[in-house]
Amino acid sequence: MNFDKTQFMQFTTKNSHQIDVDNGKANKLLSKLNIKFLRIYADSTLSWKIHIEQNTNKLRAACYAVRYV
Length: 69
Fold this sequence. Notes:
The chain has 69 residues and is an alpha+beta fold. It has one domain. Helix content is 29%, strand content 17%. The chain is built from one helix and four strands, in the order E-E-E-E-H. Strands 1-2 form a two-stranded parallel sheet.
């Protein structure tokens, strides 16, 4: 496993806290709060907020281009 490229994300609910993962290999892995996978942005609580924010900017640019033409 390439520890420089490998990351992990721990899924939680909005009310619960993240559990501290403590084993030999987990200290070398980077913990992420949000990630992009297959063009879908996900965060640790599985809300759509980040995905909507990222795609809103792209849609605004596309709408402007269509309106301009």
